[in-house]
Amino acid sequence: GQSLEQPSEVTAVEGAIVQINCTYQTSGFYGLSWYQQHDGGAPTFLSYNALDGLEETGRFSSFLSRSDSYGYLLLQELQMKDSASYFCAVKGGGATNKLIFGTGTLLAVQP
Amino acid sequence: EAQVTQNPRYLITVTGKKLTVTCSQNMNHEYMSWYRQDPGLGLRQIYYSMNVEVTDKGDVPEGYKVSRKEKRNFPLILESPSPNQTSLYFCASSFRLGSYEQYFGPGTRLTVT
């Protein structure tokens, strides 16, 4: 089967750096994605890693280690608007293009 | 503006009363899918479609039907809704099979009493 594990909640202060971890177990691996969701709104795509290493997009970076089945999302210079749920997702192989999501990490940014 | 739209956004209905949630995208995407989101369970795929007239089951298809008669539209049909289908539903699309970025609609919050 396929499963992903993330911490359920993380709290940080404005201006700080926070790391949200994701470990996965998959029968095949086609990349790790990260999505942001504000309070029941539409999940929005943040980043994607197919290969090992760090991908940077502005204040957000995502890291992948395929040998460790592990990735993380790094958020720098935290702002209040970053308070949201963050989901890691792996893409199931084959015909479905299915995204298999973790259960999400609720990030609370405090002033 | 490129977007995925869903209607209705909120719906309260009773057990057994057939309903349809519409989904439309204006990006000419080939791939569309439906997810449901429940507390503690994340997002789970219900059905997907790789192109017009090509649909298949996801992880939790029981109690749902879909159709894809036009590329832009992918309605979700609940023939006889039950309370365990109370959930937040998202439609999503991507350019094609294999695309890693999916675009989600705003969600439909369904309550079945």
**Distance N to C terminus of chain A:** 41 Å
Shape field of chain A:
globular
Number of helices of chain A: 0
Q: Tell me the number of helical segments of chain B per DSSP (H or I, 4 or more residues long).
A: 0
The tally of strands of chain A reads: 11
The sequence of SSEs of chain B as H and E is: EEEEEEEEEEE
Proportion of strand residues of chain A: over 45%
Characterization of the model:
- The complex is a heterodimer of chains A (111) and B (113).
- Chain A is built from no helices and eleven strands.
- Chain A has strands at 3-5, 9-13, 18-25, 32-37, 44-49, 53-57, 60-65, 70-75, 84-91, 99-101, 105-110.
- In chain A, the strands form two sheets. In chain A, strands 2, 4, 5, 9, 10 and 11 form a six-stranded mixed beta sheet that branches. In chain A, strands 1-3-8-7-6 form a five-stranded antiparallel beta sheet, with no helix packed on it.
- Chain A is globular and about 45 Å long.
- Chain B has no helices and eleven strands.
- Chain B has strands at 4-7, 10-13, 19-25, 31-38, 42-51, 54-57, 65-66, 76-78, 87-94, 103-104, 108-112.
- In chain B, strand 5 and strand 6 form a beta hairpin.
- Chains A and B meet through strand 5 of A and strand 5, strand 9 and strand 10 of B.
